[in-house]
Design brief:
17% helix; 5 helices; disordered N terminus; alpha+beta; disordered C terminus; 5-stranded antiparallel β-sheet
């Protein structure tokens, strides 16, 4: 009995469906997939016999939902990047398109996505270098070299770790901003990053807050502006606020006298020996790289030195003493002359007695009594010459004497009044007379 052809054909198809078309197997690459990286799913069919007319269509599912826009002839499905939030259970199905047979599904598999732990955490600043001006903005940037998934960033101030800010985002870096920096913000900072495997800390970064210099004050040492010619004056310039180092410059009438620096802050000094040209206006400037500040102008007037006044007073005193000396000598000399004249008047040998004047009578008048003139010679010494002075004294004469005067005449008397000057030996002269 011949076999039925249709029956044989059905058996063949059944055998083919059992033998030639087994259940597909779902494979994943890489295994396990890395978060943030690509993943490829492959639906494989192991055919025992190859038929040239066999064609298949493949479908992929996740948590029972069809992936992509439908099924396709490609046994592979690629994901550009996978994350831990993606579904973890996958499945595929294969359909034979020529014989229109019911498709077969693979066993569902769980595909865990592997996350890369955080590594190489660092903290950077903007502006760079950790130097920022007071009042400006400071940005602290926390970065990781390698990590996947959402990362939680934390910023801390000080070595003890006072938390400033916490952010969670899907990126390899995050920023924390201090909008207006104060002097108290000069501290050490660090950050931490965590994506589920524990926080990883950065190194400490020191922040230096630069404070601009305030307006400096210029002073003239201990003597102030009352210094005199020849003094060594210390010009001191100091800005009460400002981050070191501070550079100072000193000016006289807009001309630079010199400069000095204060590496650790505070003020600086410049020594000046005063001359007559140093009178005028002075000021100083302070600069720490954040802009120069100028002090107020101080005027220095150099008065007449005390030494010059003393010399003038000494000269006046000497002149007065000289004048007083001359006056004193003149008074002494006058006193001496007065005493000498007084002594001569008291000495009977030098001063003739003053006669008592009586009524005068003419020589030729008749009468028993006549007035007689008496002359006395007195020597006066002047230098080495002696002069004779004659004192004329009239006294009453007897009538006989008066008659004698008439007879001999006046010429005989007058001839004896003056005598020629003569030299006299000093040894024979009285000391007081010699003077």
């Amino acid at each position: 009995m011949m076999p039925n052809h249709e029956y044989c054909s059905g058996v063949y198809v059944y055998i083919f469906s059992l033998v030639m078309f087994p259940y597909p197997v779902l494979e994943v690459s890489p295994s396990p997939p890395i978060e943030g990286y690509s993943m490829t799913l492959t639906c494989k069919i192991q055919l025992l016999a190859q038929r040239p007319d066999s064609q298949f269509r493949f479908c992929f599912f996740s948590d029972g939902k069809l992936l992509r826009s439908g099924c396709s002839s490609s046994p592979k499905l690629q994901f550009p990047a996978v994350w831990r939030k993606n579904p973890e259970v996958y499945q595929c199905m294969a359909e034979e398109t020529i014989y229109k047979k019911r498709g077969k599904s693979s066993l569902p598999i769980k595909i865990p996505v592997q996350r890369i732990p955080v590594s190489d955490v660092s903290l950077e600043t903007r502006p760079t270098g950790g130097w920022v001006m007071e009042g400006n903005k400071l940005v602290l940037i926390c970065s990781v070299v390698n990590a996947t998934g959402n990362i939680t960033y934390l910023w801390y101030r000080g070595a003890l770790g006072s938390n400033l800010e916490t952010k969670t985002q899907h990126s390899l870096s995050a920023e924390f901003e201090i909008t207006e920096v104060k002097r108290r913000d000069a501290e050490q900072y660090y950050c931490a990053a965590d994506n589920g495997y524990g926080p990883v800390l950065s190194e400490l970064v020191s922040i230096t807050v630069r404070v601009p210099v305030s307006r400096p004050v210029l002073t003239f040492g201990d003597s102030g502006i009352q210094a005199v010619l020849g003094d060594l004056v210390e010009l001191h310039c100091e800005a009460l606020r400002g981050s070191p180092p501070i550079f100072y410059q000193f000016y006289h009438e807009n001309v630079i006298l010199g400069n000095s620096s204060a590496p650790s802050g505070g003020g600086a000094s410049f020594n000046l020996s005063l001359t007559a040209e140093n009178s005028g206006n002075y000021y100083c400037e302070a600069n720490n790289g954040q802009g120069a500040q100028r002090s107020e102008v101080v005027t220095l007037n150099i008065p007449v030195p005390m030494e010059s006044g003393s010399n003038l007073t000494s000269g006046i005193t000497t002149w007065l003493l000289g004048c007083l000396g001359l006056i004193t000598m003149a008074l002494i000399f006058c006193y001496w002359i007065k005493r000498k004249i007084g002594r001569q008047s008291d000495d009977p040998l030098r001063s003739p007695p003053m006669p008592v004047l009586q009524e005068s009578s003419y020589l030729n008048s008749p009468g028993p009594e006549q007035i007689q003139s008496v002359y006395e010679n007195v020597n006066v010494v002047r230098g080495d010459e002696i002069y004779s002075l004659v004192y004329h004294i009239q006294q009453e004469l007897e009538p006989a004497a008066a008659q004698h005067m008439k007879m001999h005449g006046a010429s005989e008397v007058f001839s004896e009044i003056y005598s020629k000057p003569r030299k006299e030996d000093i040894t024979d002269t009285d000391y007081e007379d010699a003077i």
